[in-house]
Amino acid sequence: MKTAIVILNWNGSAMLKRFLPNVLEYSRKEADVYVADNASTDDSVDMLKEHFPEVRLVVLDKNWGFAEGYNRALQQIDAEYYVLLNSDVEVSHHWLTSLIEFMDNRTDVAACQPKLLSEKNRDYFEYAGACGGYIDRLGYPFCRGRIFEVVEEDNGQYDYEEEILWATGACMMVRADEFRKAGGFDPRFFAHNEEIDLCWRMRLAGKKIYCVPDSYVYHIGGGTLPKNNPRKTFLNFRNNLTMLYKNLPESELKYVMRMRLFLDYLAAFQFLITGKTGDFKAVIKARKAFKAWLPEYKYVRKEIQASRKVDNVTGIYNFSLLWQYYIKGIKTFSKLCK
After folding, report:
1. CA quadruple 292, 293, 295, 298: dihedral positive or negative?
2. Each residue of 31-44: pLDDT tens digit?
3. Helix, strand or coil for residue 155?
């Protein structure tokens, strides 16, 4: 088949048991279903062999994380479209048909995502991707339907196809050839921000990213690292800074990095005075880690900037999300992006 659904798994046997039957029921007529196992130490592999023999297994030799785990798994899978799907996602009837038809009709689009709703509260969007992702000029991500911790109720207000900056890694359809041309996910990221970085690079290469809300799925979220986890804080801050350094044009780089230096330490101070010492240390550690590997990324940045085909990328808004949210009190996408 031309479409491969690829679920990356690490010690997620319970989630696979719960959600795989649903994925198979609504998808296997249009796609091959793979599980790529990141060297799980639970019974994931044995369970799959016993209970889901129709699922194709890719067994990796160690836990490579989200980014490199997918890179290595997809190298072994031949398809025109990859659907990267989290193990904690419940899909809906015809969810895949809408995505495939959209991609078939839009050769200028490299990747797309469905509408992401909360599995726990199905009238609301889900944090991880909602109805398509954007960033502000300082690199802070937000979505149609989610700004920072405020998640909107889904009343159909975003039920139209829309060009976005990034599609969520929780459920992303991407053309295999565009994934390869872009070099895949940055393996050093391990997890977090890797899908924004990938989509940004594909956008710089002249391709588009879309949200297709005719397709919708339900996502639990936070299955690997829960919110307020210092490891997650570290990865988010380090990877976000690296992503900005790689992809920002020269005219904006110095200003943005100076502002982020100030704002990151402000965030660290806020963590400290609110008793979140683990997150405080994580931000400091992330800044040091970014500085340490910055020399390695100078060539990467030079290569990306030399090959960029567009100057102005749709989905990067020229405002400060922090200012809009905390000072002006704007907490919904429709008000933020009139």
Report:
1. negative
2. 999 999 999 999 99
3. coil
Coil vs helix vs strand at 173: strand
Helices 95-105 and 13-27: crossing angle in degrees, nearest 10, is: 60
> Look-up: residue for tokens 């909360």?
118
> Could you tell me which residues are beta bridge partners of residue 111?
174, 209
Element (H, E) at 117: strand 109-118
185 Cβ neighbours under 8 A, 6+ residues apart:
66, 67, 68, 70, 71, 194, 195, 197, 198
User: Rounded to whole angstroms, how far apart are CA atoms 129 and 113?
Assistant: 9
Please list, residue by residue across 315-330, b when 16 or more beta carbons sit within 10 angstroms of its beta carbon and e when fewer do. Answer: bbbeebbbebbeeeeb
Distance CA 276, CA 287 (A): 17
Q: What string of DSSP letters covers 256-287?
A: HHHHHHHHHHHHHHHHHHTT-HHHHHHHHHHH
Q: Are strands 81-85 and 56-59 parallel, antiparallel or unpaired?
A: unpaired
Torsion of CA 67, 110, 148, 137, to 10 degrees: 100
| DSSP H or E stretch at residue 324 | none
The two structure tokens encoding residue 61: 């030799």
Q: Which pLDDT tens digit goes with each residue over 227-273? A: 568 999 999 999 999 999 999 999 999 999 999 999 999 999 999 99
The structure tokens listed for 117 are 């709703």
> Which is nearest to 207 in space by CA: 184, 231, 181?
181
150: helix, coil or strand? Answer: strand
Q: Going by DSSP bridges, is the β-strand pair 3-9/208-219 parallel, antiparallel, or unpaired? A: unpaired
